[in-house]
Amino acid sequence: MNFKPRKLVTVVTEAFLEDRIAADALRLGARGYTACEARGSGQRGARSGEWEASRNVRLEIVCGEEVAHALAEHLLATYYRDYAMILFVTDVQVIRPEKF
What we know:
This protein is α+β, with helices and mostly antiparallel strands. The protein has helices at 18-27, 65-78; strands spanning 4-14, 34-38, 40-42, 45-47, 56-63, 85-94.
């Protein structure tokens, strides 16, 4: 099997930001994303998802390194100061690199 390297950008943040961040990712060159509900606890308290204001979302974006950097810089400059958000980037291997 011939795997190709890509980056996986994972963003966990307040659910109401999902559409904005997805649009940002696509505008910055991502070709798609996956989103699902997320729960947990951190510096800004527990996010149980029991009511609208405590819902979190986890967005995963597989992309090239340039898009990963652009997205990370954009999210840091635009959202980090005012919203609960974590972002991490990991190396992944994909089978169909043209999709990402």
